[in-house]
Write a structure and sequence with these properties.
By secondary structure, the chain is an all-alpha fold. Helix content is 68%, strand content 0%. The protein has 10 helices and no strands. The chain has helices at residues 2-17, 25-32, 40-61, 71-80, 82-92, 104-110, 113-128, 136-145, 147-170, 186-196. The longest helix is centred in the last third of the chain and has 24 residues, at 147-170.
Length: 200
């Protein structure tokens, strides 16, 4: 029920409460390719909303034994982020004693060191954009001027919380689960370390 309540709150925020005027400066800059006009922190958060779905795709498909198939929600998260994943955790994540739906070849790929390292490198590359210099004041200004930044910030926070929950939900015996609190890459680190130690 808590996930459904959060989903309703997220919908309400996006539709009724998110600040921003009729014209969205950040969205305009993105569509026109003026990335230099966007604060690096805003850009990094925006990019990480493309990385989070890859992390959830990995976590959910490696554990797709629940009442509802996880893959539609994981794929939808690439477009609507937490809006799809909250519904999965609210209603679909029920123990059903089903065999893993994910094909063996995909399980091997998503659990491979190659894929996990690729996610780490992508996260690092995104983080390097912050070396250009960023401003919390500029982010705050963008938050109140752009509905895109407002909604994506809240979406990012929800995805962060869901990623920590997913690690504890699917890997209760994993070592160093506290690493899951590292935004975006934390769950990948947990998978990588425990794969190395053969505890998953």
């Amino acid at each position: 029920m808590i996930f459904f309540i959060i989903w309703l709150l997220l919908i309400s925020y996006a539709v009724f409460l998110a600040p921003g005027g009729d014209t969205d400066p950040i969205m305009s800059n993105i569509f026109s390719g003026n990335f230099g006009e966007i604060d690096p922190l805003v850009f990094a958060i925006f990019n990480s909303l493309g990385l989070f779905p890859m992390v959830f795709l990995t976590l959910l498909l490696l554990n797709d034994r629940q009442k509802w198939p996880a893959w539609p929600f994981a794929l939808l998260s690439f477009g609507i982020g937490a809006f799809s994943l909250l519904l999965y955790f609210a209603f679909g994540d029920r123990k059903a004693e089903k065999r893993l739906r994910t094909p063996d070849w995909l399980v091997r790929f998503l659990g491979s060191r190659f894929w996990l390292i690729l996610l780490m490198v992508s996260w690092l590359a995104n983080g390097l954009t912050l070396l250009q210099g960023f401003s919390l004041a500029a982010y705050r200004e963008a938050f109140f001027a752009s509905s895109l930044v407002s909604v994506m910030t809240v979406d990012w926070l929800v995805l962060w919380g869901l990623s920590v929950y997913a690690v504890h939900r699917f890997y209760p015996q994993a070592e160093l689960k506290a690493l899951a609190w590292i935004p975006v890459i934390g769950p990948v680190l947990v998978l990588f370390i425990n794969k190395k130690n053969q505890t998953l």
